[in-house]
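Lab notebook: predicted structure, single chain.

Context: the supervisor wants predicted structures on file for every construct in the current expression panel, including those that have not yet been purified. This is the next one on the list. No modifications to the sequence; it matches the entry in the shared construct table.
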Amino acid sequence: MARSNRQSKILELISTKEIETQDELVSELRNLDFDITQATISRDIKELRLIKILSAETGKYKYAVVENENQAVSNKYILVFKEAVISIKSARNLCVLKTIKGMASAVCGIIDKLNLENVLGSVCGDDTVMIILPSDSNAENTTTTLNRITA
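Prediction complete. Output recorded below exactly as produced.
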């Protein structure tokens, strides 16, 4: 019974807070009077099949539950994104990314995997990606989020 309660609380915590590390998770659970160790948390993470994904809000990695593996943005994709993108700027309701020649398609695919809020669609050429958003402010927010990823 204790394990199922603990794992339920873990799922609740990661859905309401951005938990970056196992130590952070241990600390949160201890604050809730769970007597646990880092090794126990490590096993729980494996059993719950938690992964770390990039937070669209903060640009940091956090634990999350993924219903299907296509939702996860792996570290490899983030590294490709960082290496391929030269610049990110907003232009009215658009977010425009300049990439290394030939990499726009890969970057566009990664953007689709990020499931960014308010994105209506994205198109790419050889070295440019254009993300279409409903408003100028949405484009500025998306530009800020993507710039955090490349930082």
